[in-house]
């Protein structure tokens, strides 16, 4: 049977905007030792703004953005939303067919009979498209039509206002190891990790690489220690399921992530993870 105070703990958590899907997870949280966090949407807002358009010689800025907006028009990724918002005009979807989206890479579609692409370096390399490798802070989206490189678009995300507090709080409640994982490029990842005081960061990961990283981190924890993964959703369901405690940020999170998670933070505040651990430790003191 479940000790009564666990219900108190679950209730307290829910009043704080933290949905814990069972007292076993509340108990596990008190043994948390390693916290692995996704970047986009978890530590950053996940709402990108276009900061720069860098077309190739002979390509207009408008054509660069238009091609990207058409390529992205069927995607739900935060990157797609930002490019479509910057485009301002409506996309005529009747011009598009054979739309494709590859996790951790980018998108492509047939636009008026020519294939257009938008995505990262890996995505361009996969199509054998020659591109520039700009030295810019921010997330770079490369754009191409057939084998012609049209240029790149820089988009920037913002760190959430309580992210620093969350990392400090996690250290204060005794987390031995905090790790950031992201599909985004190395430079952007290092900037965010540096600003937040996260020492270990792995970038340019595909969804399956995130699972591999978590598998590896499992080897480094104590027998009793538990590993938490926190993500916002987009492609994070496998790694949420693999962690001892999968936490989804419900504010922006996808339905798949909320389904796969053991704990859902109803707001988009990462500091609530600290709160969840505190409630768990307090509840266990009452039980014992
Ligand atoms: P994260 O781990 O930061 O949440 P994702 O796994 O969702 O990131 O995406 C990783 C990278 O893959 C992005 O930073 C981007 O370079 C590329 N990418 C993913 N989806 C798209 C898309 N719809 N358009 C362009 N690039 C994309
Ligand atoms: Mg993501």
UniProtKB/TrEMBL annotation:
Q: Which locations, inside or outside the cell, does it occupy?
A: Cell membrane
Family per UniProt? Belongs to the cation transport ATPase (P-type) (TC 3.A.3) family. Type IB subfamily.
Question: What name appears for this protein in its UniProt entry?
Answer: Cd(2+)-exporting ATPase
Which residues of the entire protein appear here: the answer is: 284 to 571 of 621
């Amino acid at each position: 049977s479940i000790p009564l105070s666990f219900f108190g703990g679950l209730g307290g958590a829910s009043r704080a905007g933290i949905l814990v899907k069972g007292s076993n997870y509340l108990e596990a949280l008190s043994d948390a030792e390693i916290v692995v966090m996704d970047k986009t949407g978890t530590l950053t807002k996940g709402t990108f703004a276009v900061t720069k358009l860098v077309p190739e010689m002979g390509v207009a800025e408008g054509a660069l953005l238009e091609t990207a907006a058409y390529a992205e028009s069927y995607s739900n990724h935060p990157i797609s939303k930002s490019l479509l918002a910057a485009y301002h005009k409506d996309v005529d979807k009747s011009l598009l067919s054979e739309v494709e989206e590859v996790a951790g890479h980018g998108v492509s579609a047939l636009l008026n009979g020519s294939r257009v692409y938008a995505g990262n370096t890996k995505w361009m390399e996969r199509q054998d498209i020659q591109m520039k490798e700009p030295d810019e802070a921010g997330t770079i989206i490369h754009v191409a039509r057939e084998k012609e490189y049209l240029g790149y678009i820089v988009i920037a995300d913002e760190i959430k206002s309580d992210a620093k507090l969350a990392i400090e709080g996690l250290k204060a409640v005794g987390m031995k190891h905090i790790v950031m994982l992201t599909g985004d490029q190395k430079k952007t990842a290092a900037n965010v990790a540096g600003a937040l005081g996260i020492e270990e960061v792995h970038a340019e990961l595909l969804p399956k690489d995130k699972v591999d990283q978590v598998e590896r981190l499992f080897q480094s924890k104590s027998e009793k220690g538990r590993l938490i993964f926190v993500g916002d959703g987009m492609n994070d369901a496998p790694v949420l399921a693999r962690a001892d405690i999968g936490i989804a940020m419900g504010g922006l999170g996808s339905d798949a992530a909320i389904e796969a998670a053991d704990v859902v933070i109803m707001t988009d505040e990462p500091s609530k993870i600290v709160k969840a651990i505190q409630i768990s430790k307090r509840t266990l003191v009452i039980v014992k």
